[in-house]
Amino acid sequence: MKPLRGVVAAAAAACFVRPVAALLHAAALAFNIAVILPVFALRRAALVAFSIGAATVVRPVTALHHAAVLAFSIGAAVVVWSITALRHSAVLAFSIAVVRPVSALLHAAALVFSIVVLRPVAYVAGLFTWVGRINLVRQVRVAFAAGLFVDKQIYTTDVSTHVVKAGYSLDVHEVETEDGHVLILHRVYKEKKPTSDRSFQPIIMMHGLLNAAGVFVTNGKSSVAFYFAEKGYDVWLGNTRSVYQRHTSLPTNSKQYWDFCVDELGRYDFPAVIEYVVKVTRKKPVYMGHSQGGSQAYIGFQLYPDLSKQLSLFVGLCPAFYLFPIKNVLFSHFVIRYPRLISWLMGEKATFVKITVALRNIFPAWFYCLLGQLALDHCFHWSSLRWPEQHVFKFFLFTPAVSSCKLLLGWFAALRETQLVPCSKSTPVKKFEICNIECPVAIFSGGADGVVDCGKRLHNAMAGCNVLVWKHIEEYNHMDFVLASDIEEQVLKPILQAINTALYIKEESATS
Question: How many CB atoms are located within 10 Å of the residue 147 CB?
């Protein structure tokens, strides 16, 4: 039975299934042709129509879009440019208000770091050389000797104490300048007071920058003032304005009082001192100026053509008119680039003097002497090794002395120009020159000075002067001319010979 049923099913499938499948395929084909294809055609036509119609819409929209983008770009550019300009302005304002002060502070910090750290490190490194070791040992030895020899009775800046201690007499005179400053002159003599007779030739001594008259009496019996007093000369020790801080009308804490520089020293102080001594002694004095003391003489001679005729002799101890470039790189950088910073730090007067006075009172004498020697050595290469060890400390009692900040700034300007230059608006000349020197001249210079140039330029400038002595001491530095232990042979005796020659010339001209 089963095989029979299989045969019947197969025959039925062959008769009915295939025709039905064929019919289904035919119906599907007819449906595709009649329905599906027209639908696809319509859809495509609709897409084409929409594309054509949309083009008329999309393109203007695209154009509007591009126009909007263009307008935005133009507007944004204006805004962006304005913002950029504002940003640059803000950056500029920020630089001026913040960055530059910060830069200045950084430079100041670098300077302090160099002074506090690098300089000592360099100095310690220098100790590993034989020269550095020997120099330090000498400076320490001199400092210890100075500290051991300090006499508490003369531990003072009172000049009269030093003069009386050495066995000489002293009178104090007050000289009023044309602009109201009151200068103090110390008149030093031996035994009896000088008279106007021939035996007492007056000699005026004027100190240098940041010094006082005390530097001429701090070397014991070998002091410059005592040497000439011992020879019978009428010695007048000058002090520049501000050393004793007196004025006829201005309070000494006023800005107007400290408004002076080297111009005023030559214009007012120098002629006032000369005229006063001439009036009191009725003689033509010898004028001896050390460093700045010579500078104010040059200025006075230029401004007052007949002033030199009131002198018997002009002695310049390394007179500061022409200057060398600063050798100390750090000091040079500080002086040339930041003079106003110095002015701000010091105020109207050189207030760092107060710091040195405090150090002198705090530290032992030997340590203060060592600091002073190291400062002179490293800033100017001036060694104190030629000074008598027992008198070194007395020099630092009078150095540095109080002075105005404007005076220091004027000298910084002179160092930049390597020549003395006017620094006050009221100065009647635009350039300082060496001229109108009618009296005989004696010039002394040192090969180890390093600051004042008394070489070819000064020789040429003074070519027309009556130069009696021009002595160059190769081993002398700037301060050795008032403090060296061998100053009598090297400097004082030649000055004495020049004075005698000048007085002889004056007598000869008077009799002829």
Answer: 19
Per-residue model confidence (pLDDT) at position 283: 95
DSSP string spanning 249-278?
Answer: SS-TTSTTTT---HHHIIIIIHHHHHHHHH
H helix or E strand, kind and range, residue 156: none
The kind and range of the H/E element at 479 are none
Query: Nearest Cα to 344, choosing from 408, 400, 402?
Result: 408
* % of residues, the chain, pLDDT over 70: 62
Q: 204 by DSSP, 3-state: which?
A: strand
What pLDDT is recorded for position 134?
Answer: 47
Cβ atoms of 276 and 303 within 8 Å: the answer is: no
Task: Return the structure tokens found at 478.
Answer: 């700037």
* Residue among 403, 379, 401 nearest 262 (CA): 403
Give backbone dihedrals phi and psi of 495, rounded to 5 degrees, phi first.
Answer: -65, -40
Residue 144's pLDDT is 58
Whole-number Cα distances in Å, 76 to 82, 86, 478, 485: 10, 15, 71, 83
For 454, residues 6+ apart whose C-beta sits below 8 A from its C-beta are: 316, 318, 319, 322, 443, 445, 472
- The model's pLDDT over 434-471, given as tens digits with 9 standing for 90+, comes to 999 999 999 999 999 989 999 999 999 999 999 999 99
Counting residues of the chain whose pLDDT is more than 90, the rounded percentage is 44
CA distance 329 to 359: 26
Q: Are 268 and 181 in contact (CB under 8 A)?
A: yes
pLDDT, the chain, mean? 79
Tell me the helices (H) and strands (E) count for the chain, helix number first.
Answer: 20, 8
Locate tokens 């002090």: which residue? 239
Angle (CA) 395 401 404, round 5°:
160
At residue 472 the predicted structure's pLDDT band, cuts being 50, 70 and 90, is very high
Contacts of 8 (CB under 8 A, 6+ apart): none
Token pair of 74 as six digits: 């133009």
Find the DSSP H helices in 178-231. Answer: 224-230
Checking if the pLDDT of 89 tops 70, the result is no
Which is it for the CA torsion 257, 259, 262, 266, positive or negative? negative
3-state SS assignment for residue 351:
coil
Q: How far lies 234's CA from each of 163, 195, 286, 500, in Å? A: 14, 9, 10, 15
DSSP code of residue 476 = -
Q: What is the pLDDT of residue 121?
A: 58
Q: What pLDDT does residue 332 have?
A: 66
Instruction: Select the more confidently predicted residue: 461 or 82.
Output: 461
Lowest mean pLDDT among 30-34, 209-213, 229-233: 30-34
Q: What residues contact residue 204 under an 8 Å CB cut-off, 6+ apart?
A: 236, 238, 273, 274, 277, 285, 286, 287, 288
User: Are 335 and 408 a contacting pair, CB within 8 Å?
Assistant: no
Geometric angle at alpha carbon 392, from 390 and 398, rounded to 5°: 135
